[in-house]
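FIELD: query
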Amino acid sequence: MRPLVRPTRLAPGARVAVVAPSGPVPEERLQAGLDILRGWDLDPVVAPHALGRHGSLGYLAATDGQRAADLEHAWCDPSVAAVFCARGGYGAQRMVDLVDWDAMRAAGPKVFAGFSDVTVLHQAFATRLHLVTLYGPAAAGVDFLKHARAQEHLRATLFEPESVRTITAVPPGGRALVPGRARGVTLGGCLSLLASDLGTPYARPGARGGLLLLEDVAESPYRLDRYLTQLLRTGWLDGTTGVLLGSWESCGTYEDVRTVLQDRLGGLGVPVVEEFGFGHGEGALTLPLGVTAELDADAGTLTLDAPALS
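FIELD: result
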């Protein structure tokens, strides 16, 4: 697995777009997120359908075509330096095939950030645009709005990426489920979305040579077992060099979750670090996808060969 192209870091005054490729966004949360971005001396613009809602499927922000068009237009706007997702939820799988990826590739690299359901788009950006992306807080996400650590780590990654080349797990997490060191190219995201994306045209064909990031929310232990077993049975996990585990919010007791993770991942024979501090937990860290890095499971650190952004 080869590292991907790193976009340019942001500068004060940069124009950034906020889109909603998945679920609907409460207006008050979006406005609060925009205020944070403005406080970083950014100039945020809101996509036309970011506050929309599908006419009959209330769990979607606008129609599939509208959400796809918002992403495409924001990306292809030469005045926009970064595209932030307002939230996750569900819906990226429905719109990803409607995006003109050739047009987006022609528009050149820029920053893309989001998490959870946005895992589907992270995979598409990797396979279609060969671009490093940021698995980090959503611009209108509750955690981003409430927790200074989530805000500061994303801000540092965007403006001063060399300051977060070594990412340390959030205490008291960062314990070695399987000890050791490993090198590879970061990939992954939300476990259920990685499993759901298997076999689609925009998904990575496998994790060989990769440091795999995994986290999820509101999935019971047996469902986590199902997703991991599916990835194992298809061979998608073959050749993974190491695993970073994030948060498992509302997935049952962590003892039960940990038992599943140990059972399904321990046999890979690679270093595994648990509770690293990214995903749906409080004060979530921003982790780049598509960069070469070294995992030290015992120390609870991920050290990037180069800053996430150039």
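FIELD: remark
The longest strand covers residues 181-190.
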